Description:
- The chain is of the alpha/beta class.
- It has a single domain (2-116, 170-211), classed as Rossmann fold, CATH 3.40.50.
- It contains nine helices and eight strands.
- The strands form two sheets. It has a five-stranded parallel beta sheet.
- Helix 2 (31-40) packs across helix 3 and helix 4 (61-72) packs parallel to helix 5.
- The protein is globular.
- The chain starts with a strand and ends in a 6-residue tail after the last helix.
- The model has no long low-confidence stretch (mean pLDDT 96).
- It binds BIS(adenosine)-5'-pentaphosphate (AP5), magnesium ion and zinc ion.
- Residues 7, 9-15, 31-32, 35, 52-53, 56-59, 64, 85-86, 88, 92, 123-124, 127, 136-138, 141-142, 162, 171, 201, 204 line the site of BIS(adenosine)-5'-pentaphosphate.
Amino acid sequence: MRVILMGPPGAGKGTQADLLINKLGILHISTGDMFRKALKEKTSLGLEAKKYMDAGELVPDNVTVGIVKERLAEPDCKKGFLLDGFPRTIPQADALENTIKELGAGLDKVINIAVDRDVLVQRLTGRRVCKECGATYHVMFNPPKAKDVCDDCGGGLYQRSDDTVETVNNRLLVYEEQTAPLIDYYRKKDLLLEVNGDQEVEQVTNDILRALGRVKA
Ligand code: AP5
Ligand code: MG
Ligand code: ZN
């Protein structure tokens, strides 16, 4: 199964992807995570991406398309994948269509997680992420058992540098201008499934699985 998980910053793409990949037996591919990993390893890709991420802008399409193309050509992607945070522009979506075609496959579905702006700002500014395993928490909505310590692995939690109020505002603006048009793009291709992301985490997961036909209505 090859699926895209779309939605504005803070919609819950990463949270849902972690839960869905186990149930669906496919890979989680997040371009944001790929850029953050490259930055941690201080590669030239990471340092280039940082300039854009810290400003809440998109990394240029040619760079992003290049890393996704490489990743999708790896053998483990044959079992299927869930894309999180890609595509984010119409040119990225066109490039993805060609890449998947070249691999002799097709895209199954595109899930759009919808959440109102006020909720997104609250979610992003209160998010905490584990330094070691990447697990995501929220100071109010999903707090760890011990403050700033990961329940899963005991690692320390940090706040993403792009989760400040100022950068969040720009990320939301960039989303509206450059990424939201993809909703219509995929609706026209008859691939779009819409899910209300402003519900309990488990309820959102269930709605996605139901939309994908993986649980009975
Ligand atoms: P990326 O890492 O993709 O960030 P994003 O799209 O802004 O989305 P987030 O990761 O912030 O949110 P999410 O939807 O995953 O929410 P989460 O599950 O964490 O991209 C970062 C940057 O990289 C971009 O700005 C850009 O610079 C660059 N980039 C990446 N991809 C690119 C591309 N394709 N092209 C160009 N540039 C690219 O949840 C958020 C919070 O809410 C958490 O605290 C969580 O615990 C909480 N939460 C989740 N679900 C619920 C719920 N149901 N109820 C209550 N709280 C919830
Ligand atoms: Mg994410
Ligand atoms: Zn952890």
